[in-house]
# Entry
Amino acid sequence: MCDYSLHSVKTRPARINDRITVRDFGTGTRGFCAPEDCDMAVCVLPGTELAFAAPVAVAVPFFGLFWRRKKRQKDFTTAIFRQINKHKRNIHHDALELPNGQTVLLTTLSAGLQATVLQLPAAASKVVEANGQTRAVYVD
# Structure
């Protein structure tokens, strides 16, 4: 999915074998960009499996405003895309679930980190599964 602060950016859905890169879109969040157009956000469905070219690195905020040094997350190079806190408004929902169960927000990933889309989630066969694959959308 694409987080709430990427609604003004042109987007396209992720495809299997896409090579995507974490980018700061200048909208208050980071997301995945398309290799053919770095201004196009690639929206990922919850449950999508990703493989990273390097261990997942998280940028640590300094006083909540500036991004500083990188910190590795236990050398994991795979993750599953999730949306968290969908019931809350105006916060980031896009996250990665690492193999140890730890969840990190997509917006905290280090810019430039590259990933490949390994597998998209299966089509939902139940209402509960379909709700898990829908975007958190809020209209004021």
